[in-house]
Design a protein that fits this description.
- The structure holds two protein chains of two kinds.
- Chain A is an all-alpha fold.
- Chain A contains eight helices and no strands.
- Chain B is built from nine helices and no strands.
- Chain B has a single domain, classed as MetI-like fold (Orthogonal Bundle), CATH 1.10.3720.
- Chain B is an all-alpha fold.
- Classes of the chains: A mainly alpha, B mainly alpha.
- Chains A and B meet through α2, α3, α4, α6 and α7 of A and α2, α3, α6, α7 and α8 of B.
């Protein structure tokens, strides 16, 4: 038996690509959750509301210091006991989204902290309403600055999607495992799965790096 | 709550495996980070190129794929199977070493140019220049990002559950869930606490190291570096 069977590799490629679509879907939906929720966390933390501030801090620290896999199991096994049953796909999106929201919130925070104090003072001087200060002055300056960092997290999320095979989501690696178990040939499926990740995430990270350089130059 | 003692004891059985995987992974990460990090600064294009392939290869693919590849595919190619825990440590080290290499490279490059020039002006040899002047300064810069990287590594040990290593997460999933199905909240609550404590220990150790390293330079540990590290945690810049 050859170490690498090209015919077999081409046979399984369509199935793997189809599973890759699921991986990308979860990444995109998870990113939406992470980017929005992270922003909410960052703004709420900035408002320094008593109690809520401490609760949020604790939540962020716990989520950041514990494995995503355990959090996914938590959503998958604990929530149904409280009457909330989510499909594995949704658990994946929500789990990844919340986990990465705690990271993106730190990124937004760094971006917000980098806004010169004069901008805030000018807003006060113009007596802009609170909402306008955020949507019209602070965020439009803070968010573009941190786009590269956010982009890096989206790429990280993409690479963490295979964790979800533990709860039965059929993404690329799970598909590779299933294909391999049919023929007892694992070399081709896992190698192709790895290459697919590299093929997408490497150009993406190059893009982010270019964005970073453009930001640095501007 | 009645089952708390059993739950704690079963999860406790997994702690040694998690700790060994973390320590082994950290050790390998340190070796690879410094090795590859210095090679990335090599004057030779070929050396840099080969090291880049390692760094980008491991940063560009999913850790789970790397784990499965080493555990399931490598045996077919080379004819021998690694023990699950050992395979896990190798993957944790290779993966985080690739991220660590960028930390080392970045920290050494961030030492101000004037320090190099000063060392040359004092006619220190290249080895002395690195050992006495550049490295101690770069080292302090590396510690906060390495703290993040090690916590990342601790969290990654959970995926070893997928290749049957009986660490904390696997104990929770494979032993406790089937047996104490109604206590899921408790099971994962305790699991979270275990990881939190371990992460806390890593941070404690790294802060201590940071203080010692800064004191040796006659500085105080910088808060700014730690804040910056926090905003880029999880992705090495």
């Amino acid at each position: 038996m050859p170490l690498w069977d090209w015919n077999y590799a081409f046979d399984i490629l369509p199935d793997l690509l189809l599973a890759l679509v699921t991986t990308i879907e979860i990444t995109v939906l998870g990113s939406v959750v992470a980017l929005l929720l992270g922003l909410v966390f960052a703004v709420l933390r900035r408002l320094h509301i008593p109690v809520l501030d401490q609760v949020l801090w604790a939540f962020v620290e716990v989520v950041r210091s514990t494995p995503l896999l355990v959090q996914v199991f938590f959503l998958f096994f604990v929530l149904p006991q409280f009457g909330i049953t989510l499909s594995a796909f949704v658990v994946g999106v929500v789990g990844l989204g919340i986990h990465y929201a705690t990271y993106t919130s730190e990124v937004y925070r760094a971006g917000i902290d980098a806004i010169p104090k004069g901008q805030w003072e000018a807003c006060t001087a113009l007596s802009l309403p609170r909402l306008r200060v955020w949507t019209g002055v602070i965020l439009p300056q803070a968010v573009p600055r941190v786009l590269p960092a956010l982009g890096n997290y989206v790429i990280s999320m993409f690479k963490e999607v295979p964790l979800l095979l533990a709860i039965g989501v059929v993404e690329v690696v799970n598909e590779a495992r299933e294909l391999g178990s049919l023929t007892f040939r694992y070399t081709e499926p896992y190698t192709i799965a790895g290459l697919l990740f590299l093929l997408l995430s490497y150009p993406a990270s190059m893009l982010v790096r270019r964005l970073e350089r453009r930001r640095a130059a501007a | 709550m009645d089952n708390l003692p059993q739950i704690v004891s079963v999860l406790g059985d997994g702690i040694p495996e998690t700790v060994i995987a973390t320590l082994g992974g950290v050790l390998l990460t340190i070796v690879l980070s410094f090795g590859a990090g210095l090679l990335l600064l090599s004057p030779s294009r070929t050396v840099r190129g080969v090291t880049r392939v390692y760094v980008e290869g491991f940063r560009g693919t999913s850790e789970v794929v790397q784990l499965f590849w080493i555990y399931f595919v490598l045996p077919v190619l080379v004819g021998f199977q690694l023990l699950p825990l050992f395979a896990g440590i190798v993957v944790l080290g290779l993966n985080h070493g690739a991220y660590g290499a960028e930390i080392v490279r970045g920290a050494i490059r961030s030492v101000p140019r004037a320090q190099y020039e000063g060392a040359i002006a004092l006619s220190l040899s290249p080895a002395q220049r690195m050992r006495r002047v550049i490295f101690p300064q770069a080292f302090v810069e590396m510690l906060p990002p390495f703290n993040n990287l090690f916590i990342q590594l601790l969290k990654s040990t959970a995926i070893l559950a997928l290749i049957t290593v009986p660490e904390v997460t696997r104990q929770a999933r494979e032993v406790l869930i089937p047996n104490y199905g109604s206590d899921t909240l408790l099971i994962f609550g305790v699991t979270f606490v275990i990881y939190l404590v371990l992460a806390g220990l890593i941070t404690l150790g790294m802060r201590l190291l940071e203080r010692v390293a800064s004191a040796r330079l006659g500085r105080r540990p910088s808060r700014a570096a730690r804040q910056a590290a926090k905003a880029t945690a999880g992705v090495a810049s």
